[in-house]
Specification:
Layout (H helix, E strand, L loop, with lengths): L2 H18 L2 H16 L1 H7 L11 H19 L2 H10 L1 H6 L5 H30 L5 H29 L2 H17 L12 H8 L2 H13 L6 H28 L2
Helix pairs in contact: 1-7, 2-4, 2-7, 4-7, 4-8, 4-11, 5-8, 7-8, 7-12, 8-9, 8-11, 8-12, 11-12
Length: about 250
């Protein structure tokens, strides 16, 4: 059985599970939409009077941040489902099959990427009536970035879940990493108004460059270095995430 066929089988099974219980997909989309409806109008009022904000209107600043937030948090918590499968004996049964161990990861990650890309596309469509205007090319590239973030963070989440095998250990680990990294990305407040040491921490945070890159895409600045570096960092994260996830699946499922 080929690797791609095995990946498709795992993907199909994971997608069926999601479609049978779509409440988590709805919840994952509801939170950023609430941010859009409740916080967006406030940001619109202060964009012109607050120094240090990135260029662009309020929606071109705010929606890219929501997309990154969706990619991070929507993918970071998928490991809880893997722990439930491990506890139910599903992972143990998969170990005795001849399936490629990396396919067990790739199929699940592909499902997560599809779900989060659909959520991101719906989020951008919902933002249009609020006043968001963006080029089609920029929107498509932004969805590509969300897909890369989803692949990277879901792979890392699965790897952590397979090692820890405990929700009590996984939850504080994810929150302890995701929240500070997210805050240092400049999604809600510009890092230009932060003290020098905080700006330095933000500059070494890949998500800060990814957020800036998506904002550039939303302004139509596709060929700029800011947009380019955002894509480079997104690809770098997905390479690291998939490498760590694949190595963990091969080792823990041997």
């Amino acid at each position: 059985m080929s690797f791609f066929r095995e990946t498709w089988i795992v993907f199909s099974r994971a997608l069926r599970l999601s479609l049978r219980n779509p409440v988590w997909v709805v919840i994952g989309l509801t939170q950023p939409v609430l941010y859009l409806a409740l916080f967006g109008p406030l940001l619109k009022q202060v964009v012109s009077s607050t120094p240090g904000l990135p260029p662009g209107d309020a929606w071109q600043i705010f929606v890219p941040g929501l997309l990154v937030q969706l990619g991070i948090f929507g993918a970071s918590f998928v490991g809880f489902g893997l722990i439930a499968e491990w506890r139910a004996g599903v992972i143990e049964r998969m170990r005795v099959t001849p399936a490629h161990r990396t396919a067990l990861l790739a199929g699940r990650v592909a499902r997560d990427v599809l779900v989060l890309v659909v959520q991101a596309a719906l989020l951008m469509l919902v933002a249009v009536p609020f006043g968001l205007r963006l080029p089609v090319g920029g929107a498509l590239l932004a969805l590509l970035v969300v897909a890369l973030l989803a692949a990277a963070f879901s792979s890392l989440s699965y790897a952590a879940a397979l090692v820890l095998r405990s929700e009590d250990a996984l939850a504080p680990l994810l929150n302890g990493i995701a929240v500070p990294v997210l805050l240092l990305s400049g999604i809600l407040l510009p890092m230009s108004i932060a003290p020098a040491w905080l700006q330095t921490l933000s500059d070494v945070n890949p998500l800060k460059h990814i957020v800036d890159g998506i904002r550039a895409l939303f302004r139509g600045d596709v060929g700029t270095s800011v947009a380019g570096w955002g894509l480079v960092w997104a690809f770098a994260l997905v390479v690291v995430g998939l490498a760590v996830g694949a190595r963990t699946f091969r080792r823990e499922s041997a």
